[in-house]
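Students often ask what a holo structure prediction actually looks like on paper. The answer is less mysterious than it sounds. You provide the chain, you provide the ligand, and the output is a string of discrete structure tokens encoding the 3D arrangement of the protein together with adenosine-5'-triphosphate.
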Amino acid sequence: MSLFLMNRYLGDDDDDEDAKESRSKALLEKLQKQAKEREQQALSNRTVVKSDTNKTEEDEKEVKRKRKEPEDTEELSKVKKSKKKSSPLKTETEDQTAAKEISSEVESSTEAKQQSSKDKNESEIHADISAEPKSSSQPGFPILGGFEKKTVQKVHRVLPQWLAQPDVIQKDIKSNLVPVSLVPGICPKLMKRLEKNGIHNLFPVQAEVIPAVLEGVCHGLLMGRGGYRPRDICVSAPTGSGKTLAFAIPIVQALSERVLCQVRALIVLPTKELAQQVYKVFCTYAEGTNLKVVMIAGQKSFAAEQASLSENKGALSCSLADIVVATPGRLVDHINKNDGFSLQHLRFLVIDEADRMIDSMHQSWLKLVTQAVYKKGGDLSIFGRREPGPITAASLSPSQMPLQKLLFSATLTQNPEKLQQLGLHQPRLFSSIHSDASTQEASQPFEKFNFPEGLTEYYIPCTLSKKPLILLHLLLRLKFSTVLCFTNSREAAHRLFMLVKLFGGVQVAEFSSRLSPSERKKTLRDFEQEKIQLVISTDAAARGIDIQGVKCVVNYDAPQFIRTYIHRVGRTARAGKSGISFTFLLGVQEKNFLQMVTDAGSPSVQKQIIQPESLKSMEACYEQTLVELGNAIKDEKAKKRRTL
Ligand SMILES: Nc1ncnc2c1ncn2[C@@H]1O[C@H](COP(=O)(O)OP(=O)(O)OP(=O)(O)O)[C@@H](O)[C@H]1O
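The corresponding structure tokens follow.
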């Protein structure tokens, strides 16, 4: 049995409008009833007084006093007690008798009321005790213990407006090409260079983003449009949609008129291969200008990179680079150890594969870059830079060189907490995810991503032992060429490479951290030139790598994360071309995989069944190859032991 009743405030229940309305109605009725009772009581008192004609003026005063007596019986009894205490020896007079009569009348009416309300309360409490769960739905405050009945409010994720309402980029490249001459802001020199490189039309992401970046430099490098600091830009567009040119073209154009050579653009990428690829693009478009492009990605020694970044002229250190393409590791080394490397004039910071770079933020490379940009002292006496704080009249004058951040990825996170780490300034998002963000957020707990338009996705149900045979079947029987095949580890990639090589009939190579950078570079070149039919790779080649002519991607091992899947299959169907992907799935993987890709917004993954009969003719040879593979692996291990 409950010993006491405790009322608790459970927060405004805005959702339950009906319950709220009925509660207020009940309260109103209760108040009206009380008012009526009080009115009647007052009337009855008055009649009692009037009927007593023998009463003296003294009596009338007493009546008035009685009328003012509190209704609350507790208070009444207190008053009575105090009266008794004050005149304990007083004998009863006629007046006192009359007053007593009135008092008893008042008392009886209040007692009756008290009794009725007491009964009511008791019955309410009994009802509460006997049917506790009901209590929360009763008007007034809910009863302790009735929480389970309260409906839990659904909490929807609310995105900041810039994330919820992006500038839309068309996904279909082929039908949304824009002639270079129609894109505003591109200078004639760069138009010619684009034409020279066979680019007559720009892809949708380029047609949207290039003018937006150029708008920020329309009044020079010091201020953006209208004299304001330019907004940071985030771009989320499918793999192979041409994001590299979307930042390379406006940066080259913005810096091409510079007078002094200083590091004004820094492009940070997660791997050496990607850095090499982007470096090449910048070199191509900086040709014919005074701009110097330097790569610091660990492909050369630290000293060689140092020499390419700056030189000493007397006591002065002069920059030899305008645009630096870097991987985070080497970048941090140069910030910490290379005195000649200054980022105090940095105007553009490009973070490619931004979601991956945010995940590697524990290396705190961004913090170091920011510190290097706003480093105290130095030679910036005229354009002294302070880290921007809140915008005030004072902070806007004198104007200082802004640092604009440009983020690119095919799988850019929509997690505001993650993006917040980047300290973006009034960011603007360009995205090819079309669905209405407000409804999307209300109903979808998963992030949606973009898939290339020309991609056809298949999955092949299989068993572990049949996987190699199915891969061989795709290459030898179905005659797929330029196939990029992904495994989940470099050991698995190596074993599969050896197996296919021993089986024969396929030009195969591996691509993983087992190989040196120069070996990997050669592999990619040979693959592009179709000297190699199949490359078996780890996820080292999954992101950003642009290999011309990959027609088919095979996920030999199913990817564990949706981002990995999107980047792997994105090595085909690039630049508006078509491509095909196969994912080998074991029985236990099927359900989770299909759920994962559907949640991410994949248009459709079709099932492809390889009949066991079609593999039969290869089985004998395959068994023989397995024996050979066992021996080859033993030899390799022995060789390794000897070299140790
Ligand atoms: N306007 C264009 N016309 C023709 N080809 C283009 C154009 N823009 C880019 N390309 C080509 O499209 C391919 C893909 O471009 P890019 O590597 O920039 O894509 P991406 O969006 O960065 O892809 P990922 O997300 O995989 O890194 C490249 O081979 C590039 O040369």
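Residues 206 and 245 are 7 Å apart (CA to CA).
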